[in-house]
Amino acid sequence: MKLRMKKLAICLLLVTAAATPAFAQLRLTITEGVTDPIPIAVVPFARAVPADGGLDVAEVIQRDLESTGRFKGMPRNDMVFKPTTAAEVDAPGWKQQHNDYVVVGRVSALADGQVRIDAELVNVLTGQRISGPYSIAPASNLRNGAHRIADVLYEKIIGVKGAFATRIAYVSVDGKPPTQRYELFVADSDGANRVRILASPLPIMSPAWSPDGEWLAYVSFERRVSAIFVQHRRSGKKTMVSARAGINGAPSYSPDGKKLAITLSGSSGNLDVYLLELASGQLSRLTDDPGIDTEAVMSIDGTVYFTSDRSGAPQIYRVTPGSSERPKRVTFTGSYNARPRISPDGKQLAMITLDQGAYRIALQDLSNGTVQVLSKGRQEESPSFAPNGAMLIFAGRERGQGVLQTVSVDGQVSARLDADAGEVREPVWGPFLPSTIQP
Amino acid sequence: MTMKKLVSISALLATLALLSGCSSKKPDVPPAPPTPTTDTTTGVDDPNATVGDTDASAGPPGELLSKRVVYFDFDRSDIRADSQSIVAAHAAYLAKNPAQKVRLEGHADERGSREYNIGLGERRGQAVRRALALQGVAETQLSTVSYGEERPAAAGSDEQAYGLNRRVEIVYLK
């Protein structure tokens, strides 16, 4: 039996299973999934009590897979047997219960107090057996290890690397105008493990990740006027990098992490885009136009995309740093296109578009200009690509409150991350974290 | 097809809470923020960037002078006819009191892109600044800041709230 199965084994060595704060103030709801999600049984893993800290690894994996809208997990109550190794999996039996895949695994405590996860994927339809990657690596916590296993399972089945073991940053706002409190948070991509980075009675906006996921740039009005800061995520080390007269806004890291694209206005109030080299503090001007030029973002090839209303209404333009060419307009569909973000492969442009009187998230194919509106709300903003390019996270409104939402780039799958309290906005999806699963 | 499915994490939360020793009675207290170990500054040249420089009671009394908010139409930054007299009254007062400084705080309604709205708020602040300067107020008395849609005066997503939020506040500085 075992030889006939497609099998994938993944192992993780986990250093500190219990170091994870038990906070999860965002709640995920799938609002729209694919018509025929892949049926998968994620069988409860063999436990290692108390070293596993009570974490239900299989549950984390199942939720990750289901959060994409492309999988439907088998209810545990329907599982007749609960095998923990691929050898124990009766493939025809699971197939009869309408599963395509079965995931089994074990959590084990090691002598040095570390914890290890072994997971195996069985394809009950093909009966094919393929040796999967096998890895041992340290991870910061057991939950993260579960996310990393979900990443690999997703890739094995869908063909695209999963983005579960990633982080998001977002701004949370509490209180009624005009007295509000602003906080900047970092959380796991599923909303768990929320950590507060900054709190202020004055606005915090436009968070942006460094490409290595170690730093966040943002705009804070804590000095009553705008200033751009970069802050080290773990140590909290915070550096003010721009507090020039007028507007200091819209920071965005270059792909190499050495520069920030920012918006400055000077005291004259004319917003233009600049590149700020972080090490030297050297500024170079990228745009020079009396209109509003702002919210620049750099593509992987170095092209800078930004919003400009030089034509009378906001549209997306692009310019190549160091080139003498004038900025070229990129968007021609609709009267309002703003807040460009470029997919990791540089081929897609996500933006806010005015669509039938509503502000929605749209995707433009940069090779042929085709535009697809992905969301259905009335006031949606701040799109941000997942590092695998498969999903976008953005801010929407639900019953008058700001909520975070995700949508797949094909528009088929939508989900909502509701906050326990207050309003959440400006989500930004962080990069892939250094891999701890090695073949 | 719409598949409505609530993915609850309460069971997981409970087990995690047991594990980490965090009482489930206080789930709303986030971990303490990292303490900044350094707070270096570079590229700072804004002379008006100080906290606590405002005084709600500061500013001159009087029918028009006590009105310190100028409202704007949708997507516009020109001062409406009904606000001209307010701006003129502040201009006259400031021209006679050259030591008095004001900060012009521009705002936008919540629709559209946040950073673009920062630009719109700035445009409105600059419009009031130009009007005051044209009426004899020294540039040194005037500064602007744009809060975009970040500091609404009124909650809500309707025309009334939008109208109250598209504004420039004239803030007298101590």
Structure explained in plain terms:
The complex is a heterodimer of chains A (439) and B (174). Chain A has helices at residues 57-67, 91-96, 142-158; strands at residues 6-14, 26-32, 38-42, 71-73, 101-109, 115-123, 138-139, 167-174, 181-188, 195-200, 204-209, 215-220, 227-232, 238-242, 248-253, 259-264, 272-277, 283-285, 293-298, 304-308, 315-319, 328-329, 337-342, 348-355, 358-365, 371-373, 381-385, 391-398, 401-408, 414-419, 423-429. Chain A has 439 residues and is mostly beta strands. Chain A has two domains: 2-158, Rossmann fold (3-Layer(aba) Sandwich), CATH 3.40.50; 167-429, Neuraminidase (6 Propeller). A six-stranded mixed sheet of chain A has the order 4-3-5-6-1-7. Chain B is α+β, with helices and mostly antiparallel strands and 174 residues long. Chain B has a domain at 69-172: 2-Layer Sandwich (60s Ribosomal Protein L30, Chain: A), CATH 3.30.1330. Chain B has helices spanning 10-20, 81-96, 114-134, 159-165, and strands at residues 5-6, 39-41, 69-71, 102-107, 142-148, 167-172. In chain B, strands 3-6-4-5 form a four-stranded mixed sheet. In chain B, α3 links the parallel β4 (102-107) and β5 (142-148). In chain B, α2 crosses α3. The radius of gyration of chain B is 23 Å and the shape is globular. The model of chain B is unreliable at 1-52 (pLDDT under 50). Chains A and B meet through β2, α1, β10, β13 and β14 of A and β1, α1, β2, α3 and β5 of B.
